[in-house]
């Protein structure tokens, strides 16, 4: 027991900050370079599904000491599910690995018939001390079905009606067309 005039050092565990009893969140996957802008968010272009989609894993805030190894796994699940499937793992060794690290969604996953619609991806990180952390989910969308399925869309109709001749188009500044519902 310490006396009145001495200072006693408190152990580290007694100085914890409330609410921070787990690992820090890991960086999120960046899909902005491989997906289309718009709705739905995270939509891959159809042509991209026939080849592997490679994301670039950038440096995270707490890198390990020299020579130590960390693992980052790209995982995928349906929205609302906690059953993630591992897609790819990269190994980072401080002092020998360089950023960005390529991490891949294989084309055989993207084109599989069961893999259509919305998904969430995240990173699962295991640091050199064995501590695990996850990134926040990022929404992606895999769409292999054209808007009309296998039925060709109807033709656009114009006013004036074809055939277009100089006489029909003379004096017009705009030509109105109607796109059929798809």
Task: Please explain how this structure is put together.
This protein has 182 residues and is mostly beta strands. The chain contains 2 helices and 9 strands; from the N terminus they run ββββαββββαβ. It has helices at residues 107-110, 166-169, and strands at residues 53-57, 69-77, 85-93, 101-105, 117-126, 132-134, 138-142, 157-159, 176-178. The strands form 3 sheets. Strands 2, 3, 5, 6 and 7 form a 5-stranded antiparallel β-sheet that branches. Strands 1-4 form a two-stranded antiparallel ribbon. The radius of gyration is 27 Å and the shape is elongated. 11% of the residues are buried.
Brief write-up:
By secondary structure, the chain is mainly beta.
Order of helices and strands: EEEEHEEEEHE
Strand-pairing-aware structural class? mainly beta
Mean pLDDT: 86
Task: State the total count of DSSP E strands.
Answer: 9
Q: How far is it from the N-terminal to the C-terminal residue, by CA?
A: 81 Å
- Share of residues in helices: under 10%
Largest sheet: 5 strands, antiparallel
What low-confidence regions span 5 or more consecutive residues with pLDDT below 50?
A: none
Tally of alpha and pi helices: 2
Rg of Cα set = 27 Å
Strand-residue proportion: 25-35%
Global geometry? elongated
